[in-house]
Amino acid sequence: MRKVYRDTDYGEVRCPQILDVSMWQKSGHWDNYQDNMFFTESEKRTYALKPMNCPGHVQVFNQGLHSYRDLPIRYGEFGACHRNEPSGALHGILRVRGFTQDDGHIFCTEDQIEAEVTAFHEQAMQVYAAFGFSDVQLKIALRPEPRLGDDATWDKAESALRNALAACGVQWQELPGEGAFYGPKIEYHLKDAIGRTWQLGTMQVDFMMPGRLGAEYVDEHSARQHPVMLHRAIVGSMERFIGILIEHHAGAFPAWLAPRQAVVMNITDAQADHVAAVQKELADQGFRVVSDVRNEKIGYKIREHTMQRIPYLLVVGDREKETGAIAVRTRSGEDLGTMSVADFAQRLRGEQTA
Fold first, then answer.
1. Could you tell me if 79 and 219 lie in one domain?
2. Which of 15, 141, 175, 288 is buried most deeply by CB count within 10 Å?
3. Which of 248, 283, 301 is the last residue of a domain?
């Protein structure tokens, strides 16, 4: 996800976890979201843990005066958020009170909205495909009660999202009353391997918060204008996304994503030194490889690591030690035969799709 930020011109930022409540009052969260926030006090001032990253990103934008030529400006943050969810709604890492978002905000002009939303849609779909998700449903969540702003502004924001998705040539469903209090949003709903649907990514058009928090740029006529703020996330809560990934792949991650890509095992103690050398050679090339030189039968070790869903099982016996090679098996039981460490590294490198 960090590579996605770099490739699409997002500046990665890091904002404070705790802000004075005056900031949340200005942003509109106080009136519309305070029941879902955690508070603390210091020196007779009340502070709130951030449930969202957006007010902090506006403060970053406000450091210095921007020209219309600078727009769009994109910020991304792997931001930790805290929300006071009801205890009955909590569910492992799939629903938590503290989570990390792959959050981002785009500050742009009205004329740039469609292009930015279209580019984000293409970006999000590429990410979902890389993680193995092909069944993605699109929905537009429309104006809720209560909300900020007037109907004319909401009409403009909702039309911008419809026009952008229409330009992408996709179908969508509309959800009346389910938008954020500051703007409508596109929701990306993914279906996992057993048919359950999860709402992950969002793209929201916000005409309200930049003005409330004093964000401005200078237009082509030297007049001050408020930018439009686009709130976007692709995987949403990274904790929840990890849980969805585990269940979607049943723990059998593709090699590029697996926490451990390969394990090197010896048949007897006589090959322990070669196991260590193979493991180091692969690890030095950036692969996530571990070794297993326990005094156990090789069949036991193969079964155990197969159950752990490690993509590649590398076995070293006397013959492999003599030739400097490894015997390669997959977790599915396929025997790929004996190959050099360099050839195996080339194979694994070819699977590094992200």
1. yes
2. 141
3. 248
Can you read off the two tokens belonging to residue 283?
Answer: 């690890």
**Contact predicate 47/21, CB 8 Å:** yes
Among the listed residues 304, 190, 204, the one whose alpha carbon sits nearest the alpha carbon of residue 247: 190
Q: For residue 353, what pLDDT is reported?
A: 61
Q: Domain limits at 63?
A: 2-248
Distance between CA atoms of 146 and 28, rounded to whole angstroms?
11
Spatial CA neighbour of 82 closest among 48, 51, 57, 54: 51
284 & 163 share domain: no
**Active site residues per annotation:** 54, 83, 101, 103, 105, 185, 231
User: At 21, which CATH number?
Assistant: 3.30.930.10
Prior bond to 146 cis, omega within 30? Answer: yes
- Please name the helix (run of DSSP H) or strand (run of DSSP E) that holds residue 177, with its range, or none: none
Q: Following CA atoms 89, 94, 95, 98 in sequence, which dihedral angle do they give, to the nearest 10 degrees?
A: 160
**Tens-place pLDDT, residues 33-61:** 889 999 999 999 999 999 999 999 999 99
Per cent of the chain over pLDDT 70 is: 99
Per-residue confidence (pLDDT) for residue 65, from 0 to 100: 93
Residue 354 above 60 pLDDT? no
60: Cβ contacts below 8 Å, ≥ 6 apart: 13, 15, 75
pLDDT digits (tens, 9 = 90+) for 288-302: 999 999 999 999 999
**According to the model, what pLDDT value does residue 30 have?**
87
**Same domain assignment for residues 241 and 277:** no
Pair 325, 297 in one domain: yes
Q: What's the rounded Cα separation, in Å, for the pair 120 and 90?
A: 30
Per the CB < 8 A criterion, the answer to whether 189 and 137 are in contact is yes
Residue 52 corresponds to which amino acid? M
Strands (E), 208-324: 217-218, 224-225, 228-237, 262-266, 289-292, 312-316
The tens digit of pLDDT for each residue in 76-131 reads 999 999 999 888 888 888 889 999 999 999 999 999 999 999 999 999 999 999 99
